[in-house]
Amino acid sequence: MSHEKYRRLIDAAKGLPPVATAVAHPCDETSLEGAIDAAKQGLIRPLLVGPSARIQAVAKKIHLDLAGYELVEAPHSHAAAARAVALVAEGRAEALMKGSLHTDELMGAAVKRDAGLRTARRISHCFVVDVPHYDDTLIISDAAVNIAPTLAEKADIVQNAIDLTKALRFPEARVAILSAVETVNPNIPSTVEAAALCKMADRGQITGGILDGPLALDNAISLEAAAIKKITSPVAGRANVLIAPDLEAGNMLAKSLSMLARADAAGIVLGARVPIILTSRADSVMTRLASSAVASLVAEARRRTAGKALA
């Protein structure tokens, strides 16, 4: 596979300073090697948070040289998650990365009200998906954090995804609000919410993207399917952001693309003060690098926004 879309992201991030990243509990081969690979590519500057003796033992086993990388002591995974979050609050890190701990441990530490990472925006997850034979990079949300989001929460999910397209330098955000059908049906609540989200965008409650919905998956990504259904819009047939009705649908969509279409899916959590990199043990090296590149580009976009606010 060429991974052309991911390579463009990685090349863009390589032009930026490595983003200081608190890596929570990188105590297995996959998570430690992934962090160091990203560091060697110039994408991140890792702070390895966890039991240092255990991290060094893993490094020795896989012949990784940790010289030059900072180790931050934490006795176990819960403490590592808390310390990694604290490094962000202290201004020492601009991103978080999940190591060999449960996602709930890291996210639980990140969303605590006294941790200093929460914002007014709902936290949500995006998959940045490189699908062979599809022209655009696809963003799928939310497939990992929000189980059954309300309309208000979906508005934040959409806005987070649009903001991600800006950080990744998409020319425009074409957002398809997915359901099983492309018409509003009061018996299918996701179609009603899709229509409401589109009207919210019309009223300026969601900004920066072009929304259409409800759309079924086929007429969201296939111009031929959209033409057959006589759907005319700037989004139908050429969406680059897919908003799932709930976590189950989003998760199955992302994993079906990975398993059946050989797509790669890099994961990022947005809506907090810093991007949070959620990797899976099943991720390829390229996917892990792409996740770090996405976090780097998001961190850079936030620095630019902060600089404008201060100007």
Q: Would you write up a description of this structure?
A:
This protein is an alpha/beta fold and 311 residues long. It folds into 2 domains: 1-118 and 272-311, Rossmann fold (3-Layer(aba) Sandwich); 119-270, Isopropylmalate Dehydrogenase (3-Layer(aba) Sandwich), CATH 3.40.718.10. Helix content is 44%, strand content 18%. The chain is built from 11 helices and 11 strands. The chain has an 11-stranded mixed β-sheet with strand order 3-2-1-4-11-10-5-6-9-7-8, sandwiched between helices. The radius of gyration is 19 Å and the shape is globular. The mean pLDDT is 94.
Task: Tell the overall outline.
Answer: globular
Count of DSSP-assigned helices = 11
CA radius of gyration: 19 Å
The poorly predicted ranges are none
Look up the CATH topology of the largest domain. Answer: Rossmann fold
User: In the CATH hierarchy, what is the architecture of the largest domain at level 2?
Assistant: 3-Layer(aba) Sandwich
Structural class: alpha/beta
Q: What top-tier CATH class of the largest domain fits best?
A: Alpha Beta
